[in-house]
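User: Can you help me understand a structure? I only have the sequence.
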Amino acid sequence: MRFSPTLRLTLCVAQCALAQSLFTQNVFAQSTNVPEGEVVVHVLNRVAFGPAPHDIERVTQMGVERYIDQQLHPEGIALPADLTARLAALDTQQLSEGDLIEEFRNAQKQAKADPDAGKGERRALLQKLGEQSAEARLERAIESPRQLQEVMVDFWFNHFNVFQGKGLDRVLVANYEREAIRPYVFGRFRDLLGATAHHPAMLFYLDNWQSSVAGYQPPRAKNGQAPGGLNENYARELMELHTLGVDGGYTQKDVTELARMLTGWTFDPRIATGNSVFRFDARRHDFGSKEWLGRHVEPRGEAEGDFALDVLAASPATAHHISYQLAQYFVSDVPPAALVERMQKRYLETGGDIRAVLTTLLHSKEFMDPANFGAKFKTPYQFVVSAARAGSVDVRNARPLLGAMAQLGMPLYGCQTPDGYKNTEDAWLNPDAMGRRITFATALAAGRLPLDRQRGLGAPASETGAPAPLPVDGLLDALGESISGKTLQVIAQSEVPLRAALVLGSPDFMRH
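Assistant: Let's start by predicting it. Here is the structure, written out as tokens:
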């Protein structure tokens, strides 16, 4: 009986899973005096999106501690000229908030004036924006030597999630990531919090742009149009997700009072121009006094919202919530309480200095504990990006990778709920997801994805310019000791055309 390549690969992966389970039982029973190669791979799997060719050798030579410190200061790491040039060529990524909103509104007007031609132009605009946004994110994640910066962009975007599929956010999400997330990933949490709170993508996504004092009537309201009113969406998520956490000690009354404090924080898409379209509309603001988190808040207009952000950013509950989430992302799904405590303390000592908190985390004994090596299950985003890095894939066409992430349940910028994508094993490990990962691994390894070409592993492109199959030896060299000896035995016994796919589809590679 003949089996399809994907089915044969699935059977081999099952063998690898059994081998890995036996290997894991033994390796973690050994002394904590683990080989240097395993430590290097562990650091590259967490501080970066996995090793690319020659990364293991480079980090070994410079030393793990120096590598971590270098990654914590990305401003000292030069970007490759080719990557910089390609990013600069993505013209939509240079547009300001106001420019993007104007483009979107013009497309909407054209669609109304000429439904046939206008809808086509709007579709083309959204497609170009979406593709260039994805290309910019993926090219940086795969090729940038500032890997920890890219990892932190992934972390913070999920923390302050905005859904690209909602109205104006279809054109604003990439700008939001570039202007409100990326510049602040190592800075003070208060600055990051403020940048997201003022960006039109967040104001639109969680409806604060329309929130107003009860009875407010928009100046251009049509006859019969309902008056404005209070919207609590952003205030609730600001405390529950962005700062204090679900057990942060606030009440429903605190949500309502915070929403009142934030009335008037808005933007007007009809007059949006320039780099920042945020404005405070005093007509929308509730100028009554408030009682919030045990504090009496006198009417101060826009300053009430800034005061709220100051209080939330400085709260011990926020320090704990952020520390827990970072430790969960970088160490284990249930992070050690002692580590979270030390990180919380460091956050409070430094006024929410993210780089200082990360330094405590990445130099901790818990982060370097062999029991946490391979303890995390890759999200679809981490899986796809790490596969492209390991295979040294040159992504000039991001569509196949975007399609894979969508198939795996994690479309880029596609989380509809404000809590963002989870990074824990129980969210992503299931039989259907494993099957889909194997399908992607098979296609990438066989060179069936039209990504333009591969580079760096010595596999020449085919005469048609299509990607060539990934050489298994190059993959294994790039991944080093992240692929266990037992899994290597299974791979060596399998058919040659399946071996590269087996590496990327192995349980070893699914973890980090």
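Now, to help you interpret it: Residues 316-365 form one domain. Confidence is low (pLDDT under 50) at residues 17-31, 453-464. Let me know which part you'd like to focus on.
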